[in-house]
Amino acid sequence: MKLAYYPGCSLKGTSFEYEVSLLKILETLNIEVKEIPDWNCCGASAAHSINHNLSVALPARNLAIAENGGYESVLAPCAACSNRLKSADYELKTDDILKKKITDSLEMPYKSEMSINNMLEFLIGVVGKDKIKSKVKKPLSGLKVASYYGCLLVRPPKIMKFDDPENPVTMDELVVLTGAEPVDYSFKTECCGAINSLSKPDVVMALTGNILYDIKKHGADLVVVACPLCHSNLDVRQREIERKYDEKLGLPVLFITELLGLSFGINPKDLAIDGHMVAADRVLKKIEGLPNQQ
Amino acid sequence: MKTVINEQNRRNFAAQVESMLHDKLAKCYQCGKCSAGCPVNFEMDYTPNQIIKMTELGMEDKVLNSKTIWLCVSCNTCSTRCPKGFEVTGIMDVLREIAEKKGIVSKVEKEVQMFHEVFLDNVKSNGRIFELELVGKYKLKTRHLFRDMFLAPKMLEKGKLKMHGEKIADLNQIAKIFKDFE
Q: Which ipTM value was assigned to this complex?
């Protein structure tokens, strides 16, 4: 099966760790993906917030390039990108008038025949649990991991058609495969504040703070995510949240691809784990079972 | 609150929203489940169920100038939980788009609105987001030059802030998309 890869803007910038670790684990899994040639930004939240047609047309260009290039499946690791690509595909399937306008403008046909996968769908559905399990060389036993899903992977369910919108478990299943222990907590799908990170930082810190303190309360060593925006809010803003609410968190936030990579025995440096704002050293020591662990 | 509603205006506004939304406002029976689960309800001036009823009543000015439409982060919790399957998240998109097309600048939440505008300008000129340029232009526009600046040194050190952006090759097609749909 020809697999197209849509990195999106964040994976080429602030969330470069996500792309580095993804490509690294795909190497181990012996799976080849091809970046969609000359892909453009999906329009993210900005487009759908103020211009519906643009929010369909921008992702449609990427989808049409991939489909006309003979790809059967698209991997969009960024939760926001996968959400926008799936939403555009849904609109193109259900709104014939808009579809005609868009395909005329793009001068490309589009048949909506590809499967569009977020990171978790890809790992469970395309790669498969057995294959992942067969690559685990260094089980992360003793490590407690909280999976944070956020909004865009699971909602709206009628379009995402992925897992349970209130209590998803796919990422927890992947955590189990790595040998780590999944942590149950209440804020799995609560919003981190997403795109308002720059425009409403106080609101974002309140929402993200709720999530992080609940995770902490349930005894997790670290958090895993599958969304660059969630990562940004949970990792980059964590120090500020600690100062604002005057309570230490010290929770490293890893991408699910990094956690899998660690269990495959890949060197943390090659997974770009040192690229996060909250250092993961203490937790990494625990994984490697070094004598000085607490 | 004195609100005189002209029936023709009320119908026009409700019909415009419904046609953009592909959904019926009358579906909502005001149970308030959307507002109870909304993660940003504590900052809003009107709750989501109030916005739906006000739209149905034709209270155009109040709705289009509300903080609520710009505070909504489109997390879709409301639509997911709505017992009637009403497009609660969708109505926020529709109202923002109408406000934007009418040139209404949000008095209180103009920064959220500006962020969306600067973001789309960045897509228009590069085809992709160049984060440093996006943040720079946003800061100039909102004059919040120093907010969040303390994050910059460490982000640079970690390699999170790229100094150069990528432009796509076929910028003409992006220009055409914006010309046809903006």
A: 0.94
